[in-house]
Design brief:
Two copies of one chain form a homodimer. By secondary structure, chain A is mainly α. The first copy, chain A, has two domains: 2-147, no CATH class; 153-479, Orthogonal Bundle (Neurolysin, domain 3), CATH 1.10.1370. Chain A has 20 helices and three strands. Chain A has helices spanning 2-17, 24-42, 47-56, 61-78, 82-102, 108-133, 137-142, 151-177, 190-203, 240-257, 274-288, 292-305, 314-321, 338-353, 362-374, 401-420, 424-429, 434-443, 453-461, 468-478; strands at 211-215, 221-224, 227-232. In chain A, strands 1-3-2 form a three-stranded mixed beta sheet, with helices on both faces. In chain A, a hairpin with a 2-residue loop joins β2 and β3 (227-232). In chain A, α3 runs antiparallel to α4 and α11 (274-288) crosses α16 (401-420). Chains A and B meet through α1 and α2 of A and α1 and α2 of B. Bound molecules: zinc ion (2 copies). Residues 248, 252, 278, 281 of chain B line the site of one zinc ion. One zinc ion (ZN) is lined by residues 248, 252, 278, 281 of chain A. Chains A, B: Keywords: Carboxypeptidase, Hydrolase, Metal-binding, Metalloprotease, Protease, Zinc. Chains A, B: One of its GO terms (molecular function) is metallocarboxypeptidase activity. Chains A, B: Belongs to the peptidase M32 family. Chains A, B: Pfam families: Peptidase_M32. Chains A, B: Its cofactor is Zn(2+).
């Protein structure tokens, strides 16, 4: 199954990065067929007895953990009929593919029609999973990405955040209003941005003999651990989005490239969860990428590929990287306003899956919540509003909380690193990024799925998820 | 199976066009696993009875032809054990991947070690197939690419060719020695060549919404009919190889893009054979691409992308395109010397499969035959000698004759077209290439595998394979 999923991953990357329009229908059918084959394997009649027998064996820790992960996957797969799996795969491929042209065309009606089909199938999946594991409908879907996490816990954490975040944003904005920040002036040719991206990835330790950087409409980190496929997108009027996006995806990539190589093919060699995965991308993009010491390392690369500019002077560059400004686009958001984007999506997607709202309610809710959380008017602007992300069209309901959980974990990792290495900030500024990478490799990357999330987090940082580190990080970076 | 093979095709293209070095081992394992899954499906125990029952049904012509093709595939698959199929897939992936670096390094010893493993498995495959269908060892392998063709027939056709070809090459060379031909002077930047390739493909009717042009170490036409993936390779000191190579692969591509779309997924929607496939690539590359009328159509594209040059003047360009000169490299050969390259490979690969020679004998045989057929000394030059093609490493024993059979079919098609359209040459010169494309589409592309090869050829051209057309074509183009 590991080997067949390899082909599925590469075909999925190709679909987003290379495939011409007329190839989509055949690709969607091919990937749905493979989803069906994999589902058949996961639901093979012989597995239940084999898993039960394995449970009685004397197993070492790794084997016991493998069995735990196999049972989790077996249980989730057996709750779903093959027809649903294939229908979902098809609906997702079609919705995602059409979104690529519908988004620039502001075609909400067209997108909504496809999305309704995806939501229908996701609700059915939630119903079947929840009936099996006793979770709520939404929690049953979120469990696919963040096993063990519940919306009660998310509500607790996000509820706290919702209280202090708007005030913090205002405080930071008031403070930054007094600063003068020079903006780099374009255009910035794509080829120069691509070369910059490659150099930044090298600086961050990406192994180009085991991966690539390409382009797609929505950036992502795909492929397989042995061959990681990053994508980004370029706008010639600005290089910052592509650069910070590439830094983000490189964090995902290094997690994948450094999973326990000798165990690949076993369940414990998988990344732990999507929250943990985002904790890596955000360790790279936010903790490290917006660090004043990191700006020093970026400067020569910017000079080499983009040119000389007073805007690239370290202090100004740091200001650019830590500029807090409510905006339309989640993936372009700074680390202070980012959680607001996630809270909005979490509230909408949970209501959608729980059946409290319908697809047609999304635009109005989006507008209301954007105004409430960030004071931004998105009415009529589908492209930069509720059609900006393809997650829902791709059936990723329950994924969004992982971004902010990831930001919180990332803050917790860096607090832990600073306890171990009081000179961490000087090390970063001096270019010794291995101080960070070695810690992440030892505590996260090389651990794969040996431990369940709370245990992994406790081993890495001495305690389970503690959102106080995230607040402390933002206050120290933006208000100190 | 059609859908799963889609993923295999895309992953195979990616392996050649994109994959970084460290990805190969995992990719090889993934593709071998899929070959195993497909083999299991083809050898499912229920199929024999189902095929026998279908035989008794009253079927229309298409269904009857589908059944014929299914039985052919069933029989060939059932002659081979799954372990052999997977071992072959793995050995091929490894050999092909290593060849990419071994060839430039002239590492014959390294390549030979991998090739011995492939040959061992190919001989075993030949033995099992021959035991089942009663053909000779080599014919059993050739039957995979050119069903129904035998080495007795190839010997007859190639024997005739071997008699008159060396004399013809000398005659043409003597004649061309009196001509002055201007050579275009480089360097020719890759980006300009790529843009030229795109425009030439458009001129030839390639549908870019259903395919792409990329780069690989060995040019090929891969992907799926709905999404055809061409590759080429660029050298900055010459644009002709890449351009003519792209024209060649575009011929393959248009065959694939124009297979009967409504039947895709059925066996009769497949291209008929590899000889027929090469007859399309060579109709494009040789019949059309070296046609003096076609040079007129290339001129504005060359001016646009490469620049102005007296070498591009139509008469000189035609001379460049029809220059006959014995050379090392098969894929760069002109249409007169090309068959010599094929005869050489056919003689070596047949002896290898029949067990008359071993892998270690290849270099010496290669040198002898190159000297004999083309008067060229390749001793010690593995890169431009027996390591230039990856066919053997890729397990494609029995494929090479298809190139020259294809050249003969292509000459037969154009002779038939000229009977139907006496003004064909003027039409080509005036840019009415649809005269050619419509004929190929009606007679070859849209026919898929409805008919066996001799019947398809007879319906298209009024008779079965007649090599006299090829000789007449060469004499008329090069000696008239
Ligand atoms: Zn991410
Ligand atoms: Zn060809």
């Amino acid at each position: 199954m590991h080997r067949l999923a390899h082909l599925q991953s590469i075909a999925g990357w190709d679909q987003a990065a290379n495939m011409p329009a007329k190839g989509n229908e055949a690709r969607a059918l091919a990937m749905a067929e493979m989803d069906g084959v994999l589902h058949q394997m996961r639901t093979d009649a012989s597995l239940q007895a084999l898993l039960a027998a394995a449970e009685q064996e004397s197993l070492d820790d790794d084997a016991r953990a493998n069995l735990r992960e196999m049972k989790r996957e077996w249980r989730a797969s057996n709750a779903l009929p093959q027809a649903l799996v294939e229908a979902k795969s098809l609906a997702i491929s079609r919705c995602e593919h059409a979104w690529r042209t519908q988004r620039p065309a502001q075609d909400w009606a067209g997108y909504a029609a496809n999305l309704r089909e995806v939501v229908k199938l996701q609700r059915e999946e939630a119903r079947l999973l929840a009936a099996d594991n006793g979770l709520s409908l939404y929690d049953a879907l979120m469990d696919r990405y963040e096993p063990g996490m519940t919306s009660a816990e998310v509500d607790r954490v996000f509820g706290d955040l919702r209280q202090w975040l708007p005030g913090l944003i205002q405080q930071v904005q008031a403070r930054q209003a007094q600063q003068t920040t020079l903006q780099p002036v374009g255009p910035f040719p794509k080829a120069a941005q691509r070369a910059l991206g490659h150099d930044v990835m090298s600086l961050l330790g990406f192994d180009f003999e085991a991966g690539r950087l390409d382009e797609s409409a929505h950036p992502f980190c795909g492929g397989v651990p042995e061959d990681v496929r990053l994508t980004t997108r370029y706008r010639e009027d600005s290089f910052m989005q592509s650069m910070t996006g590439t830094i983000h995806e490189t964090g995902h990539a290094r997690y994948e490239q450094n999973l326990p190589r000798e165990l690949l093919g076993q369940p414990i060699a998988h990344s732990r969860s999507m929250g943990l995965h985002e904790s890596q991308s955000l360790s790279f993009e936010m903790q490290l990428g917006c660090h004043p010491g990191f700006a020093k390392l970026l400067l020569p690369l910017l000079n080499k590929h983009i040119g000389e500019s007073p805007a690239f002077e370290v202090e100004n560059l740091t200001r650019l990287l830590t500029r807090v400004a409510p905006g339309y686009i989640r993936v372009d958001a700074d680390e202070v306003t980012y959680p607001a984007h996630v809270i909005l999506r979490y509230e909408i997607e949970r209501a959608l899956i729980e059946g409290e709202i319908e697809v047609d309610d999304i635009p109005a809710l989006w507008d209301t919540k954007m105004m409430e959380l960030l004071g931004i008017d998105t009415r009529g602007n589908f492209k930069d509003g509720c059609m900006q992300d393809v997650h829902w069209g791709a059936g990723l309901f329950g994924y969004f909380p992982c971004y902010t959980l990831g930001a919180m974990y990332a803050a917790q990792w860096f607090a832990s690193m600073r306890r171990d290495m009081p000179d961490l900030d000087q090390r970063i500024a001096s270019g010794d990024l291995n101080a960070v990478f070695d810690w992440l490799k030892a505590n996260i990357w090389s651990q794969g799925s040996r431990f369940e999330t709370p245990e992994l987090v406790r081993r890495a940082s001495g305690e389970t998820l503690n959102p106080a580190y995230f607040r402390a990080h933002l206050e120290s970076r933006y208000l100190a």
